Amino acid sequence: MALLPDPEPSRRHFVVVSVDDHLIEPPDLFEGRMPAHLVDRAPRVVDTVDGSQAWLYEGNHHPNIGLNAVVGRPHDEWSMSPARFDEMRPGCWDIHARVADMDKAGVWASLCFPSLIAGFAGVAFSRSKDPELGLACVRAWNDWHGDVWAATYPERIIPLQITWINDPLVAATEVRRNAERGFKALSFPENPSNLGLPSVHTDHWDPLLAACEETGTVICLHTGSAAWTAAQSPGAPLELATTLFPINGCAAAADWLWAKIPLRFPRLNVALSEGGIGWVPMLLDRLDYVSTHSGSGMSGAWTGDLTPSEALQRNFWFCTIDDPTTLAVRHRIGVDHIMVEVDYPHADSTWPDTQELLAGRLAGIPTEEVELMTHLNAARLFRHPLPPPGWTSGGAAA
Amino acid sequence: MALLPDPEPSRRHFVVVSVDDHLIEPPDLFEGRMPAHLVDRAPRVVDTVDGSQAWLYEGNHHPNIGLNAVVGRPHDEWSMSPARFDEMRPGCWDIHARVADMDKAGVWASLCFPSLIAGFAGVAFSRSKDPELGLACVRAWNDWHGDVWAATYPERIIPLQITWINDPLVAATEVRRNAERGFKALSFPENPSNLGLPSVHTDHWDPLLAACEETGTVICLHTGSAAWTAAQSPGAPLELATTLFPINGCAAAADWLWAKIPLRFPRLNVALSEGGIGWVPMLLDRLDYVSTHSGSGMSGAWTGDLTPSEALQRNFWFCTIDDPTTLAVRHRIGVDHIMVEVDYPHADSTWPDTQELLAGRLAGIPTEEVELMTHLNAARLFRHPLPPPGWTSGGAAA
To answer: Which residues have a Cβ under 8 Å from the Cβ of A340 and sit 6 or more positions away?
Structure first.
């Protein structure tokens, strides 16, 4: 197999800050970042008997799935099969190549989630047989993300950490450590109870939530980060689960909302990462109906000055990849809480046609609203710098 | 406790055909409708030690839940507690009282689903320890529904049957028997695999689907009919599950669609009963993106002339209870596939304020579209007669 020829740089219409992309952990990620007595047990990339490659960790192989690294690959070669590093576009794991690919698509800045060796929320390491080893891996991943992935081009990458979910106190300490060195976001499983952990309807997570609120760290709930899908039927084609990605965001937002987290942590920001905005008007309308009609006050689940739908609009943030119908009713959501995602290098990704797709979808929307959605909201939420004036002008990047 | 005073009849703005209401099975439902040797084992209503009432069937008690019979009860008495028949508004189980209540709210016709003794899709009887007894109960329920509930006021009730889900051949025979005596609809679990049965991604159900297509029997997938909810977290307030009702409709529609049922049974009509229309634009947009971009052709899951979203718009039917934002983008769904529901006597019900709520929600929409959504689409889908001219005029019913 071969990668497609390098695409031509797009004409830049918009400054894009993408709030959902992925990195694929490079083979040297853990080198020099593990305590000496754990070095030999750090995850490492090995060749497998089928000619592929996989991460080897605690005796198990974890391949990178082809669909999670499709950019630059011919469409008829997309599959669920394991992918070797040399079959992937280098932008998957090399930050210099990534920034060059961002330039090609006019993406100014990017929030990059992990891939399978860590899990979208770092959950894989938290599930280690040896917790000391797992926590060292979480810290090494965060150190690498901060020192290499984000620090090489600090204006282009929004630093995101993974979470040690086994202990909210340890997790809170890690949040504070990372906030001091510039991290702005944390990836957390959308529903910890699906992983056998206490649900968000307990006070178990309060130390972590408090640390995030205090440091302005955005909690990002990535679709699929808790091993749950609304696609339940055996024998269904892969398209069913792909179609239902947005349901995860909806279920997570409703769950975190009814857990009263916006009431207990009023300055906490929660981003629904991937899953679009198609469900947000439905959820707002439904919250209004349920809270004024169907079950109002019955369980005493809600108190305070804000209604549930107002709290959703205040504390939660959403991102779109391709929701043309919902963009028409964007004011119901609040244009100041809608962002965009590119989802590089996954099968959903708009790369390298991000600019062209957005130009079609955003046609007819006033410029000030377009600017909010394409970059200003994300820059404000994640406290990230904007590009120098003229970054979009003159067509493609030099 | 006491029921509220009888409400004043509403001013009638619209002819309403409600495609999602419920009946509560009356205590005498099975009398005279069971084979002689099973009479003693038919479900029967008994007084329980806590002063409530419950159906006794195969040694288990099945109470009617208060939230499923809230109409006419003071809001502060709504609860999940069991309800006695004398605590319910008689319209719950008595067809004369029901039609009087429909008159009060300007509801011309109603499609009534079962309550807990049967399960929304009759699943409870199919799960009987003794299958002979269970099947006799399904047939008795259908006989009663046809002979009493629907036949007493044939222009006011759309006959709906429950399904023997243990054997698609038996179920198909029952569909044909019922079609001959005027049944127009069948309640089927939204996802049989959640009940341990073969999924819709097999050919197991084809005899039943073929019988429905052949007889023009609409398959109604009622939210919650397969014991699945997107509300997963332990300790969540009841409002979470109530808020997430719509997810069931979305997940079921996507599931039945990717099972290629519209391609294999092109004239089959599938109604998503309860759950609103808020998710339909999202699903259409998402289907278009997934089928042209993210996974197009990868699994070979889709063939034929229609796209998945076009098939959703052709074979599936939707109903709204309160989706103001989505009504603004109703043309994306197709105004000819949107219907309304009242959900009498459940906690979500708009009764007795159905007319007033609809008047607010439908304000500004052209009359011909309003007429499609309030009654013409439902009358066409379920082949049900329309009211005599002038039925809405002159304010409340005599």
So the answer is: A16, A17, A18, A19, A319, A320, A321, A358, A373, A374, A378
